[in-house]
Amino acid sequence: MRPWRLLLEEWPKEWIGFVSELPGCSVKGRNRDEVLARAPEAIAMHLAWLDAHDLPRPEGGGPEVRVAEEMAATAQGVGPLFHDDRQPMRLEEIEAVHRVGSAAVADLLALWERASEWE
């Protein structure tokens, strides 16, 4: 199995990692090492979330994580533009991202409805 590709952003007070093959899967930490240490758990949680929503999993990802790119945010506070960000998306990728986003919005709306009952 191939490792998951992690895109790392360095910000002044934190680091953020995005898993290239898993739209919506990200992990934060105070430094690079913390993000790398937390990434496997974030991936496992994201895969479980996909399963719970009957969404397809990308094939081939194993338990390992590999840093594919590492860049710093600009002094103006703009996140980096990774190589993956510059590639045109195929229709299947756009549809997959849309399904993940729709499920996430549905979860947020359900949580908001439950939270309104707590008042």
Fold blueprint:
Layout: E1 2-10, E2 15-19, E3 26-29, H1 32-52, E4 61-72, H2 91-118
Parallel strand pairs: 1-4
Antiparallel strand pairs: 1-2, 2-3
Overall geometry: globular
* Number of helical regions: 2
Structural class: alpha+beta
Considering DSSP H and I runs of 4 or more, what fraction of the residues is helical? 40-55%
Beta content comes to 25-35%
Q: Tell me how many strands there are.
A: 4
Radius of gyration: 16 Å
Task: Kindly report the spatial arrangement of strands forming the biggest sheet.
Answer: 3-2-1-4
Q: How many angstroms separate the termini?
A: 48 Å
Let me know the largest β-sheet: 4 strands, mixed
Average pLDDT level: 93
- Regions with little confidence, pLDDT below 50 for 5+ residues: none
Elements, N to C (H/E): EEEHEH
